[in-house]
Design goal:
The structure is a single chain. This protein is an alpha/beta fold. The chain has seven helices and six strands.
């Protein structure tokens, strides 16, 4: 059902999970677990939880992942987490962390770290063999401008490499 406060807007009912469109992402920047539990009480409206690097220092990643799975929410580590491991040449460590915590959805991005498109596609292909991949095109740097034709080209390439969804990032 539509949330009570929105009943005045004559909105259509949401599709049931798993949704293929209208996907809602909740970003976890390391909020306390109880606060996350409260936020996830809206689980019918939340499809995926993006877990940022701040949440990794809380030492309760497995609890966050388990909570998501219990509520039919897909957890994944943010692109910044992926990039931090790559920057330190620790892709195997990233894979170990995901496997240990039963995370099988991955975000591949290059918003902070420069990765050649062919290298990025090779990571997408590797990860797509074992799970679902989301990827991001764009940059956190507002001075980095990508012409629209290039965005489309990069997005198509990442979809062809195995990304299920490509997020457009800009600042």
């Amino acid at each position: 059902t539509i949330l009570e406060g929105f009943s005045y807007f004559d909105l259509p009912e949401r599709n049931a999970k798993p949704r293929q469109s209208g996907i809602n992402v909740l970003v976890d920047r390391g909020i306390p677990l109880k606060t996350l539990e409260n936020a996830l009480s809206y689980h019918k409206h939340i499809d995926v939880l993006e877990i940022g690097p701040e949440a990794l220092i809380s030492n309760d990643l497995q609890k966050r992942v388990s909570l998501c799975k219990k509520l039919n929410i897909t957890p994944f580590l943010s692109g910044i987490v992926f990039e931090a491991f790559l920057k330190r040449d620790k892709f195997d460590g990233y894979m170990e962390l995901c496997e240990k915590n039963q995370i099988d959805t991955f975000m591949v991005s290059d918003g902070c770290v420069t990765i050649h498109p062919s290298e990025k596609c090779s990571y997408i292909e590797k990860l797509a063999r074992i799970g679902t991949v989301y990827s991001k095109v764009g940059s956190k740097d507002p001075a980095y401008i990508i012409p629209p034709y290039k965005w489309i080209e990069l997005m198509r390439s990442e979809l062809e490499c195995g990304s299920k969804y490509v997020f457009a990032e800009s600042k």
